Amino acid sequence: MSLHSIYPLPKLHRLPEALPLDGAVQLDLHEGLPVLRASSAIQERIASLLHKQQTAELTSEELDELDQYEEMDDYLSFLNRVVRNLSQISEA
């Protein structure tokens, strides 16, 4: 059984246009494993969009941007799960 059949790789449709090409993702270590996270700047932008969404109506561009950040976050979460699960398999 290949790793691809165990962990089918999702596809990102596109990256947010406002996403900076440098510094968008930070790499941390947790229990010796790399963990990918949105950078502080991206997290602040997401928080800003979510706050605005609670107090006013987002433009269609802002809604699209927020959806793209959510898709990117899902992708990073997937990659983090794959790394964690592969680590657990290799420890067994």
Instruction: Summarize the amount of helix as a percent range.
Output: 55-70%
| Large-scale geometry | elongated
Overall number of structural domains = 1
Percent of residues in beta strands: 5-15%
Q: What distance lies between the first and last C-alpha atoms, to the nearest angstrom? A: 17 Å
Topology:
Blueprint: H1 3-6, E1 25-30, E2 33-38, H2 40-55, H3 60-91
Antiparallel strand pairs: 1-2
What attributes does this structure have?
alpha+beta, elongated, 92 residues, two-stranded antiparallel sheet, 3 helices
Describe this structure in words.
There is one protein chain. The protein is elongated and about 50 Å long. Strands 1-2 form a two-stranded antiparallel sheet. The chain contains three helices and two strands. β1 and β2 form a beta hairpin. The chain is about 55% helix and about 15% strand. It is of the alpha+beta class. The longest helix has about 30 residues, at about 60-90. It has one domain (about 25-90). It starts with a helix and ends with a helix.
